[in-house]
Amino acid sequence: MNKDAFNPDQRVCVETLDAPLFVAAGAGSGKTFTLTQRIAWALLDGSGPDGGPFASSIDEIMAITFTDKAASEIKARVKSTLRAEGLAEESLKVDSAWISTIHGACARILREHALELGIDPDFQMASDGFVADALAQAVEEVLIGYEEGSADGSVDALFAAYPPRSTGHGGTSVEDMLMDIAQAAAESPAGMDSVVDAGAGPAPVVLAQQALDLARTIAPSLAGLNDSSSKREFEAALHGCEQELDELLSSWSEGADERFLGILGAFPMPKRTFGKGDNPYAAHVGEWAQELAEICLNALQASARIHFATLRGLASDVLAAFERIKREACVLDNTDLVTKAHRALEDHPAIAREYAHAFRLVMIDEFQDTDQMGIDMVMRLSGGGARLCTVGDAQQSIYRFRGADVGVFRAHEARMRALGDAAMVRTLDTNYRSNADVLSFVDCLFSGRAMFGASFMSLRPGRDESRIDAPYRGSASRIQVVLVQRSKPPKGSSIDSSCKTAVAADAIARRFERLRAEGHRARDMIVLLGRMTNADAFARALRGRGFECVIAGGSLFGEAPETRAVVSLVRAIANPNDEVALLDTLESDLFAVGDDDILSLVTECREDGSIARRALARGFWDLLDREPTVGISQGLAHAASVLDACCCMARTSTVEDALLHALAASGWLARLESQGAEGIARAGNALKAVRFAAGLAAELGCGIAGVASAMPDRIVRAKEAPGALSAGEGDFVRIMTVHSSKGLEFPIVAVAEIGKGKEPTNEAFLSTRIKGVTYATLLPRSAFLPKELKKKADAFVLPEDVRADVDRLVASSESPASRRRAIVAYETEQVRQEAQRLMYVALTRASEALVLVMDVDDNAAHDIRAYAPLDGAIRNSIMGFGGDSLADFPSGASTLPYGGSEDAAFERIVIGVNDEGGVIVTGGDGEACRWGDADADEGEKRVFAIPEAMPSRMPSVPFGPEREGFESYTSLSSLAGALDANKGGASATAREGVPSFDEASEAGIDPFADDAEEGAFGRAGAAFALDEDRATDVGAAFHALAQWSVEEFGSKLSSCRCDASRREGLPLPPPDRIAATAQAFGVSSSAAPRLEAACLRWTGSACAREAIAWPNLHAEYPFFIPMGASSDGSEEWVLEGSMDLFSGEEDGSCARIVDYKTGGRFDDAPEDILERHRLQATCYAFAALSSGYDRVEATFVYVEQSDWHREREPRCVVYSFDAADLDGMRDLLEAIHARRVCP
Fold first, then answer.
1. Of the ranges 635-639, 807-811, 1170-1174, 1181-1185, which is most confident?
2. Is 582 left (phi over 0), alpha (psi -120 to 50) or beta?
3. Which whole-number Å values give the CA distances from 1165 to 486, 531, 919, 1069, in the listed order?
4. Whole-angstrom Cα distance, residue 436 to residue 432?
5. Of the candidates 595, 560, 774, 592, which has an alpha carbon nearest to the alpha carbon of residue 687?
6. H or E stretch including 91?
7. Count of C-beta atoms within a 10 Å radius of residue 414
8. Which pTM value belongs to this model?
9. Is 800 exposed, middle or buried (0-12, 13-18, 19+ CB in 10 A)?
């Protein structure tokens, strides 16, 4: 072995085999290399005390790492090293060696001793999706059991105190709390014993005595104070509470607990509004206020203690059901593996003896990502740690969400240092990855007190610059820092957060574009994000500047359009009459069936010439019973052929074969293959979804129907990373999460959106896990509490002298109030530290250059308090290096010293609003431009290619009504393409909002005649099924309920003949009507809350009140406007459609039109929405203006999205037209129609 290749610290680590070893290995320090060399050295002559090998075989060496991928890498390196050292025979044993994850090692122990342990040796590993489903099923079983009838009064009381079911909109439900407690217990070997009630404390009677003592302490201090009204009010209230408490304590009986809470609600809060000066009251008022707040918070927790005990009992039932479900499926999850292996060594002496001396060396890689359970297990296998080597880096511990506990790392380090000469502690701090400037910047950031401070392990540059394959070619500094500032807009204006994201993404894209021009390849560059929520925005910015890019990491696989398309395909094949699945499949990229085809499928042309609605599935599958013809589009015929073949295959072939046939026969895979890196990445998602479905079929032992039932929920819960296909040496930029980049390196790294996660909240149920124990605390729901009592309890804060030791406080404080506040403080601190470590990992991925993007809101006055915690800490470190840690970043473009060979380039980009309300972006050079004016061209439209093989069966007659001479806005939009924003004369304003739940299409299809024999729901459905927005279950149901609301309002208005109803607004449909409508339109139980929320948001909105303020109110208002027939001889045609809501002034001066939209794209900008609906607004307004109205306002309302600044208001875009626009609008519509006549 050539030990000259090691640096001194690496050599010590490799050669130390006979003592406990703790290695702190920094990023890029070669820790995996050192670990593999240590394994090889232990097998070579000279490593043992007698001159022979320290270990006689690789079977005596155990190496534990964090992932299967890392274990495979270590095996490959060990094989190569052993062969190079002449140990070919040992290299052949590597594949069966004890080199694996902790779960792999435990599984091996259990399988080898299955009969002794009473375990089926053929047990399977439960997938993450199965575990999530099994736990949810267990919770459901327990809830249903008690909801259907319970003799347990405590359970009834729990259900009365908290909503039994989750609403999906936050809050504290029994279902949510059970899931949290059961999951915590399931992940611990101690089960429910690992869940501790942190709210346990003094009984209410004890707290009442404390409150009385406090009142009697405060009262004498009031005697000498100057008289004032506030003092008299306080004194009277205090005296009243003192009397009531005295009376209550004299005869504490049933109902006293509730009465005590009422008294506390009336107990006056000591304040500094009177008694100022040098007196006992002023000296102690703050202390007394905190004492009262603590009593109030303790009392609230005491009142909920009985409910927490009930929850623990129910959670025990859930845990038992969870274990039964796993046992019946013959599976074990990761927690089972470790706990059962641990118990095998603890309860079976023979097994313990077998492993007590089985391994001469035990090593743990990535030790910072280990939990307490893992280290306990490994200590047993290493002679209590005598033969244990741990390698890790606390600065890279970023997997807390998976149970990793950096405290385990630090505690073990402390134990090792305490052993003195009996243990070896070494640091690998030479970095062989990054340029010295990158390391200097990392030092500047993380050595500061606001970051890692004194515990920071600085990295020394150690790479040979002459051997770098892709040296930095940029002319700008290697370190570039960008701050995107969103200024506070003027009153009445707003700046969407998506704009801030887009500006940040463009800042990265511009820098990458410059680096490409200077010689760097796209594949040298990567964008690392803390979360993938806005990954698409960064991809758009890069593609807009000519880069191919791939979203290659994160857990967004379940949300990818390709994945959703395969899920819909599975459901459509399993149930050909599932209209939602069929519609989603036809409209997906599999077939891209157009609006006109969908319209023809849901429209039936009768023999008497009338037309009526028919089910989409009936119209689609009827195609297969007709002879070939050219009466339908080629794409629709092709879709029918492919889906028919897939349905036939599903009966006799595997799920995987049927789905692969659909992907190939549809031409989708071929089209994706032609789209470069992006297409290959999307194909990877589609094929991974097929594998996922096949895996489900194998796991559940079911066919396509079982897969269709389980797949939608399972694929969301699995939180898988995107699929991947080999892109070879493709030249594209990658976008991934920091977690996905762990262990990788890239020449140029851009970092953004780290530290933007949700802050811990003060909800009724709180929990945290410390050293394997889960501490939980519960309060009553706020709705059931006196407002003043809750306000006083919220005022309690932890004393300054204990805030640095909150983890101890959580576990040992005698005050439930202190424990509750400590849980919030502990979680807040853990989130802060994890964000810092995530930033460290991100920055240390770079070998050549860094682009760091941060953002801040409303920082015009350079108030450093405006920064988020992580960005504020970075500012503190960088500006502190320059001499003033309290200074803000400079304005405009500048440079920042950090200790590198040249200063970092800095740019502050400011987003503001101009006098016209437009968004203005000002760069570091001081030049301002209206945002969106310089958007890059997205490129050519892609051609939708259909394979040459055509269906064998096609309709014999033209399908659906031809309706020659009629146009709706949808049919016109298919002819129009992109509409010039200036045509039609419309002016528009937008109210900004937030994203909703899905990607439902916003385009609509206007209804034709309905069938009078189908009843109310049938008539509504006849209209709704013809609208693409309404053709989803939630959209259709909402339109039906909105129509009922308007009609009910009209009826009420007619009966009372007054303006009171107009002031009250639209009536909210009652719960039973909402439930009945949801059922009629096939709304799933999981989507029902969306429908309720949409109804509530719309009926109570200012927009609704404005719409109904005028007479002539109509829901689903149809129009037919004759067109053409001009002097130039053009043919007549009719513009037709139906408005969701219409109201107009009686004198014809003005009309208001409202169109409802469910869904909405996540990243839609207001201007994009305005452009999307402009043609529809033009058609509707033209109809109203042609009918004699002078002015029209058309409002498009996104009922599932809330306005940024007014949470209860929906997002709206408004168009304004007047009579002067009429001729221009007619010319526009005629010109579009002419494209059909003369294409």
1. 1181-1185
2. alpha
3. 16, 20, 11, 31
4. 10
5. 560
6. helix 88-91
7. 10
8. 0.71
9. exposed
